[in-house]
Design brief:
Order of helices and strands: EHEHEHEHEHHEHEHHEHEHEHEHEHHHH
Largest sheet: 7 strands, parallel
Strand content: 5-15%
Structural class: alpha/beta
Strand order of the largest sheet: 3-2-1-4-5-6-7
Oligomer: single chain
Number of helices: 17
Length: about 375
């Protein structure tokens, strides 16, 4: 089955859940019998770097009109040359200018999240959010099938965008289980990273943005340090919220207990996950799935998640105790303290790794996606 995959940007230069999923699908769909050719806004040497599999139709920072014009031209060329069985769109902004040019070619939308709603949470104006929502709807209503990461996002797509439920399929995100399976104890991994090997360590890997719940997590650590005096929270990621988060840490006197690591290279993440005794995902809104949960589990490290969006669906099959009863500082503090003190029973490293590989390994996910593609082509 020959497909054209229309993405947003290229991972890891432009790190996001969407781009990470796209990157891994380009690697694993061929193994499931799907020929995948990709187009993204990316660096000019991308085609050379990927052996021609993925090309950049424009630079990410080019004016929108330029990106749209070049996206139309690139898609038109692929349709004429390769005659793909279907087009899979991963980002509405770049799908919008080409959907009317697809003719009879089926469109499958990979819905990675409500772009308009996410923008609103991050501070976008009402008019800008409304325009984004309208653009999204123009793409989604053209889709023969839509793939969402969780039942939570299935409901969003149906209720907010009026996509019929029978067109929506839930296929979760995946993980390269072998890459994250670091053979080391947490203490040994901490020593390799230069972290204090003797301190109970909690890791949060997040973009530093409002809906991620990092403000709640910092507040929770004030209570955690009372129960576990040596506890240390490390926050890996970058974003516009960094100065505010550091101010909160300083104001609460938590400098010895909470540290912002900044950007952690993708190559270092497996060891970072393994170095933690516990990973926490404190999201407060619009979390479609949370790939970091799978990465942590694949590294053998249990994870606590708030009951937001698709997070519970990622971990409940392994251990319901990993889903906190609520979001917010109190629930986070209670859960983290209990986990570090051993009063909250969480699965061990082998169980975490096995669950991630068997349920969410990319070869498994790629086969499920191929089944949806085949249905769209009937």
């Amino acid at each position: 089955m020959r497909t054209l995959q229309l993405g947003e940007g290229w991972f890891p230069e432009h790190a996001s859940g969407l781009n990470q999923v796209f990157y891994n699908l380009m690697a694993h769909l061929p193994g499931a019998g799907v020929e995948a050719r990709g187009l993204v806004a990316g660096p000019p040497d991308l085609a050379a770097r990927t052996g021609g599999q993925v090309a950049a139709f424009a630079a990410p920072d080019a004016p929108l009109a330029t990106r749209w014009r070049h996206a139309r031209r690139a898609v038109r060329g692929v349709l004429a040359e390769d005659a793909p069985a279907l087009v899979a769109a991963h980002f509405a902004l770049y799908a919008a200018p080409v959907v009317r040019r697809l003719g009879e070619t089926p469109l499958v939308v990979h819905f990675h999240g409500p772009w308009a709603d996410e923008s609103r949470v991050e501070g976008a104006g009402r008019l800008a959010a409304a325009l984004k929502h309208r653009l999204e709807r123009s793409v989604y209503r053209r889709a023969a099938r839509c793939i969402v990461l969780s039942s939570a996002f299935r409901d969003v797509l149906h209720q907010r965008y009026n996509v019929p439920e029978e067109r929506i399929h839930v296929v979760p995100g995946g993980v390269d289980a072998a890459r994250f399976a670091v053979e080391a104890t947490p203490r040994a991994a901490r020593a390799r990273l230069g972290w204090d090997p003797d301190r109970p360590t909690v890791l949060a890997v997040r973009r530093l943005r409002r809906r991620m719940g990092l403000e709640d997590l910092i507040e929770a650590m004030a209570a955690v340090r009372q129960a576990v005096p040596e506890a240390l929270l490390l926050v890996a990621g970058r974003g516009p919220l960094a100065p505010d988060l550091q101010s909160r840490i300083d104001a609460a006197g938590l400098g010895a207990h909470v540290r912002l690591l900044g950007f952690v290279p993708d190559a270092d993440l497996p060891l970072a996950y393994r170095a933690a005794d516990l990973t926490v995902v404190p999201t407060v809104a619009l979390e479609g799935f949370g790939l970091i949960t799978l990465e942590s589990l694949a590294a053998g490290t249990p994870v606590l998640v708030t009951p937001v969006g698709g997070l519970p669906e990622a971990v409940r099959g392994l251990a319901p105790a990993m889903v906190l009863p609520a979001s917010g500082p109190a629930a986070l503090a209670d859960g983290i303290a209990a986990a570090l003190r051993g009063t909250l029973r969480l699965p061990g490293a082998d169980a975490c790794r096995r669950y991630a590989a068997e349920q969410f390994g990319w070869p498994v996910i790629a086969r499920r996606i191929r089944a949806v593609y085949a249905e769209a082509c009937r």
